[in-house]
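User: I'm writing a tutorial on reading structure tokens. Could you give me a worked example: one chain, its sequence, then its tokens, then a sentence or two explaining what the tokens reveal?
Assistant: Sure. Here is the example chain.
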Amino acid sequence: MSLLGFWRNRSGGRQSPGYLHINVNQYRCSGRLSMGIDLLDIRFRLEKRFNIALIREQFDVDLWELAHRRQPPDFTAGEIYELLLQELKRQNRDVPENSWGLFCFCVSEALGLDAREIQPDSLMEADLGMS
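And here are its predicted structure tokens:
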């Protein structure tokens, strides 16, 4: 199953464990964003490297919205990087001068890639092999 698989909640409106319930663009939407081990690893590495806390619920919602702009669902390294920059600014943190390089290092370590392979338009699943 794809990392960004989306399943309809068939529990009759009841909240089920593991389901994310969000309101997107003024409509009620229920679904599950499966956070694979690679994405979880990337998230923890970014939090440690940049000394920030990525708020899980908001991070998940933002990724869900980004991923579902494409078919099949996926998002780019640049889109995750932009979320990171937004969070740094929200937490009144300075953006390091070499932030893209640090970001690429975190992603490359998590995915076992050469950091030079990571481009802003690289799709995380399709191009970089994130699971």
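What the tokens reveal: The beta strands are 20-24, 27-31. The longest strand covers residues 20-24.
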